[in-house]
Amino acid sequence: MKDEFIRDGIRGNLTVKSFVPATNIGKFDLKVEPHKKKITVIVKVFYRFIDNTQDELTWTMIQKSDFKRDTRRAIIDKWSDNYKIRCIKQGWEEFVMNIDFVIAQVNNPAYCQYVIEVKKLARYKSSGGINHGVTPHVCGVNNFANEVDITKNQEYIFNYKEGLIRAGLRSLLPAGDGDYVTFSANQHILPSSMKTYLDRFLAIVRMRRTSDVLGIKAYIIGLKGKNDGTFTHNLESNRATAIANYINTRITGDNFAIASDTSEQWAKDAVKFLKTRPRNHTTSGQDGGALIVIRTPNNVERTVPHKYIVMTHEFGHMLGLPDEYLGIHSNSTLSKIQLDRVWPVTLASTSVTTGSDRLRLMQDGYTQMVTQANIPLPNLISTTTIAKKPEARYAQQKIDEKNDLHSTRKRQLKDKFGQDNWIYKKYKNSHPYLSGPPLLTAISNSIMHSGSDIQKAHFVTIWSALCNATSDHLQCTDWEIIATT
C-alpha cells in the first residue's frame, strides 16, 4: 500500500483542484508528492490594477511588477516554514511533509481562483477584504497592502501577550491559582518539587515572552502563613529572593524575576485578591509561600513592533480561514474554545453573538475541522472586548460597594435635611464618586486578527485538503500538523 501511495504521487494522482474548505470560503489547489516529502499549495491569481482618477494617479508597468513581486515575497516569507504535516500511521512515519506555497499568476481571469484588485491611493490606508460571493473571488486591496500596517494599536497586542503569560502561570493548577507557591513552615529553601514546578512556568515564559515584550516582569512577593513562626527573621523576603534567584539563573540576561514586597499599592491589591480565592494559603491561611505577579513596570512602553501586513492576512482568507476579530457567532465554536482552555478567561470571548448565519456556518465549519485535526482554535476575540484582569475586577467590586454606601448615605441626608442643607452638601463634597482602575483592552496577535502569529489552526484547511487528496490510502486521523523545528 505504501508503494502504491508513492506511485500515485509520482503519477500526479494525489491532488485536489479548487478545494473549498468546510468554512465555505477560500479556494486553492493542492498536490501531494510523497516521494519528495512535499505538499504544494497553489493559489491562482489574476491582478487587476485600478488607477486613481480623482488624484490623477496611474499605475506604471514597473509599479505593477513591483507589487506582484512584493505580494509573492510577503506571503511566502510569512507562511512558509511554520508547520509540517506528518503521517502517524504505524509504518508510515517517514512521510513528514513540508509545505510549499505557490502564488501562480494567470493572464486570464477566467482561469484564476482570486482576482487581486489593487486600487491606487495617494495616502496610506489600511484596508483589504475578499468578496467570496462572486466568481472568481475578488480580493480588494490598495497599493500599501504589502507594507507593514502602521495603524494597528500595538498596546492592545502587548496587553494580550502579557495576559497569555499570566494565564499560563495561573493555569498550572486546576483552580487557576498557579501563581501562588507554598513553602513548608519556616522554610525558604526551594525543594526539588518547587524547582520542577517553576521549570514548568519557565517553559511558558520562554514560549510567550518574545523579544518584543521583554519589559514584562515576574514580581515575587513572599508571604507568611499561620504555620510559620512569629519571630522568623526576613522569612518573606528570603522566600521571594530564593524564587527570583532560581528563575533568573534560567531566564538570563534581563532580570525577569524581581523580589518584591507589599509596600506598593499594586502589590497590596494583588495580595487582597489572593485572599478571595478558595485555596487560601496567604497570611490568613495555614501555609506561607510566595505570590508571583506578572506585570509591566510603569516606565515600560506597552507596545510591540508593527508586523501586520494586509496581504498576508488576506492570503489566510484564500486558504479558507475566517476573520477572528468579529467575536464568536457559533455555539460549537464557543464550546470548543472553552473546552480547550488555551486562552485566558480574561481574554477569551464568553458569549455568542447572534444574527449572522454566514458567520455562524463559517465558524461551525472551522470548528469541525480543528476538532477532527485535534488542535485548539484560535481565540475569536471581538475588537470591542475588554481584558478584565481579576485584580481589576476585585478592585472594582470594592469600589462599587463604597459608592453604594455613599449613595445610600447621601440619599438619607438629602431626605432628612434637604439638598440645600450644609450637612448634606458637606458629605456630598467629601465623598465624590469613585472610579475603578482602568481595564486593559486587548486584541489577538493572530495573523487572522490584528497581528502576525500563525498557529496550528491556520494550517487546518491545508490538512483538510490533504485528507481529501489522500483518502484512498489514509484516514484523516493518520495526519497530524506539527510545528517546524
Overview of this protein structure:
InterPro entries: MetalloPept_cat_dom_sf. By secondary structure, the protein is α/β, with parallel strands linked by helices. It folds into 4 domains: 2-151 and 456-483, no CATH class; 154-295, OmpA-like domain (60s Ribosomal Protein L30, Chain: A, 2-Layer Sandwich), CATH 3.30.1330.60; 325-385, no CATH class; 390-430. The protein is 36% helix and 17% strand. It is built from 12 helices and 15 strands. It has helices spanning 2-11, 61-79, 154-170, 192-208, 235-250, 265-275, 310-318, 331-340, 357-373, 390-417, 422-430, 460-469; strands spanning 15-19, 28-33, 38-50, 83-87, 96-105, 114-119, 129-131, 137-142, 180-182, 217-223, 257-260, 289-295, 386-387, 440-441, 479-483. Strands 1, 2, 3, 4, 5, 6, 7, 8 and 15 form a 9-stranded mixed sheet that branches. Helix 8 (331-340) runs parallel beside helix 9. The longest helix is centred in the last third of the chain and has 28 residues, at 390-417.
Rough outline: globular
- Helical residue percent? 25-40%
Distance between the first and last residues' Cα: 29 Å
Q: pLDDT below 50 for ≥5 consecutive residues: which ranges?
A: none
Q: Can you count the beta strands?
A: 15
Radius of gyration, CA atoms, in whole angstroms: 28 Å
Q: Which secondary-structure class do the elements indicate? A: alpha/beta
The number of helical runs is 12
